[in-house]
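Let us practice reading a record.
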Amino acid sequence: MILNTLLSALFFYAFDLSFCLKYKDINFIISNIHASITFLNSVLFLTEIIDMSLYIQISAISIGYGIYDIYILKINNDRNFKNMLIHHLIIIIANIWLYIFNDFFMTRIAAFNYLTEISTPFLNLSLYLYQNNKTKLYIANCNLFKISNIMLILTFFIFRIVFGLYLVKITLFYNNLSFLQIILWLLNVYWFYKILKNSIKFI
């Protein structure tokens, strides 16, 4: 697990240095890579295509990604640093806990949580288009920014708010990680409020 964590952190950092793009643009790409890997890993585990041991080993990539992103956000004085620090620390702590205790129930809960990453590409695409003044970009007579915002709101609400609340309910009082599940859900509620506030005018 330690090796996987170090290799993933180094990979993300090396990937960052390999492209002459703005820091936020490259961060969107790396975020999407992480989201895709963790989402697919969770689907494979929940459908019993891979076992728990392999799932936990692959999930160590999130620790590496969390360390990388905390560092990048800090050195760039990102205004979302504090919220993202809390989010990444939750992910790091949860993955270390799973590795140490090998709890099947909580591993499944972690996998269910990673399904929420389905909203990440829509979030990153919306932010990229907005920050690069491409909100009027059309593909096949469809406004890409508008479609991305609609998909973001739908996936974020279904997976992070509704499904997230269900995960809070079924993990409540199970162990100390239940507290982290609550914090994660509250963070998502806060972010969903900001998404609605900023996106509704474009829909």
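A brief commentary: The chain has one domain: 2-202.
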